[in-house]
């Protein structure tokens, strides 16, 4: 979720769900060690529980970065062994590490030795010409032996040669049964499944076998999905009845961030899919996208965009009544 699940996104998603665990966009060890840590890693305590996802392949650097994450107060550090983007391929980490399970184990052990935080791993079922039945079980065994606290498995191969990162999210076929077999082989290891899950019904079905589900783009493109997560998956009351009240609750945060010099568009870009499927959703997206980037844009822009939805719904209800 590079460039997507930043702190503004996570704050809004936490408003929608009290219980879901949130993950940062992947940060490289180099960025954490040498970059502006407050800007890259800072988060609002309201976001908790929130985990830092790391990209790297040096056990020493990952241990050092995990220690920094612990100091920032993160609830978990997650090693990404599944991202197929060009950036991670050039850096020899992400999905490339599926080819080096021994190194992944060394990385996990180094982080476990450095921090008291849970250390988890997100992987694919294989890359390129690997046999997934062998590759997935091998890397899982190495991670478990090294002390990994949980595994998150994207149930697709990653093709590092021939497919773009976007194509890698859709073209390689999903193999849920393979991930289920992995869970049965390691019954005591917490495992979540990732990939292709877009509805609560699908997630509930997976939770009959798996310990958790990890959802990225489905929740990002349709944040309203998170409004129902607490009730459907955690047997807990929903925080809001609808997206309209969630927007109202988000306004104080927006005002605070604008007062600190943030641009409205950097916050509201994460809300574009909020009213997906409702009348006026297209007008909401268009108005917000066009007007939030203007100098001096404030909360009134968001409220006006929401007004497109309420007006469209009123027209529809009026037509139905007539």
Automatic annotation (TrEMBL):
List keywords of the entry alphabetically.
Flavoprotein, FMN, NADP, Nucleotide-binding, Oxidoreductase, RNA-binding, tRNA processing, tRNA-binding
Site note Interacts with tRNA, residues: 80, 166, 169, 282, 285
Q: Per the record, what are the reactions this protein catalyses?
A: 5,6-dihydrouridine(20a) in tRNA + NAD(+) = uridine(20a) in tRNA + NADH + H(+); 5,6-dihydrouridine(20) in tRNA + NAD(+) = uridine(20) in tRNA + NADH + H(+); 5,6-dihydrouridine(20) in tRNA + NADP(+) = uridine(20) in tRNA + NADPH + H(+); 5,6-dihydrouridine(20a) in tRNA + NADP(+) = uridine(20a) in tRNA + NADPH + H(+)
Superkingdom of the source?
A: Bacteria
Check the record and name the CDD domains matching this protein: DUS_like_FMN
Instruction: Pinpoint the DUS-like FMN-binding domain residues.
Output: 1-289
This protein's cofactor list reads: FMN
Name the top EC class.
oxidoreductase
One Gene Ontology MF term: tRNA binding
- InterPro entries reported in the protein's UniProt record: Aldolase_TIM, DUS-like_FMN-bd, DUS_fam, DusA, tRNA_hU_synthase_CS
- The record lists FMN as bound by 53, 122, 154, 194-196, 216-217
- Write out the catalytic residues in the record: 83
The enzyme's E.C. designation: 1.3.1.91
Q: What does this protein do?
A: Catalyzes the synthesis of 5,6-dihydrouridine (D), a modified base found in the D-loop of most tRNAs, via the reduction of the C5-C6 double bond in target uridines. Specifically modifies U20 and U20a in tRNAs.
Tell me the PANTHER family matching this sequence.
FMN-LINKED OXIDOREDUCTASES SUPERFAMILY PROTEIN
Q: Matching HAMAP family, A to Z?
A: DusA_subfam (MF_02041)
Similarity section: Belongs to the dus family.
Q: What is this protein called?
A: tRNA-dihydrouridine(20/20a) synthase
- State the species of origin: Methylocystis echinoides
Question: What's the source species' lineage?
Answer: Bacteria, Pseudomonadati, Pseudomonadota, Alphaproteobacteria, Hyphomicrobiales
């Amino acid at each position: 979720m590079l460039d997507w699940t930043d702190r503004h996104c996570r704050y809004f998603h936490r408003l929608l769900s009290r219980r879901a665990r949130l993950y940062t966009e992947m940060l490289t060890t180099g960025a954490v060690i040498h970059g502006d840590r407050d800007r890259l890693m800072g988060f609002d305590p309201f976001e908790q529980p929130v985990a830092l996802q790391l990209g790297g392949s040096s056990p020493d650097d990952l241990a050092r970065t995990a220690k920094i994450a612990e100091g920032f107060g993160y609830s978990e550090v997650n090693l990404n062994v599944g991202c197929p983007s060009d950036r991670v391929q050039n850096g020899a980490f992400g999905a490339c590490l599926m080819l080096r399970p021994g190194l992944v184990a060394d990385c996990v052990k180094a982080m476990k030795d450095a921090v008291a935080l849970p250390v988890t791993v997100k992987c694919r079922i294989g890359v390129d010409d690997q046999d997934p039945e062998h590759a997935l079980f091998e890397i899982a065994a190495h991670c478990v032996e090294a002390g990994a606290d949980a595994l998150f498995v994207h149930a697709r191969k990653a093709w590092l040669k021939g497919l773009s990162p976007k194509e890698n999210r859709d073209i390689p076929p999903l193999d849920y049964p393979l991930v289920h077999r992995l869970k049965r082989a390691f019954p005591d290891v917490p495992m979540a499944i990732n990939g292709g899950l877009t509805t609560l019904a699908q997630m509930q079905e997976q939770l009959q076998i798996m310990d958790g589900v990890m959802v990225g783009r489905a929740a990002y493109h349709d944040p309203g999905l998170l409004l129902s997560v607490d009730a459907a998956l955690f047997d807990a009351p929903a925080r809001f009845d609808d997206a309209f009240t969630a927007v109202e609750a988000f306004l104080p945060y927006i005002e605070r961030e604008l007062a600190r010099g943030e641009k409205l568009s950097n916050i509201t870009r994460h809300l574009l899919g909020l009213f997906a499927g409702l009348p006026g959703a297209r007008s909401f997206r268009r108005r917000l996208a066009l007007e939030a980037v203007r100098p001096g844009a404030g909360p009134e822009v968001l409220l006006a965009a929401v007004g497109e939805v309420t007006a469209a719904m009123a027209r529809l209800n009026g037509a139905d009544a007539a």
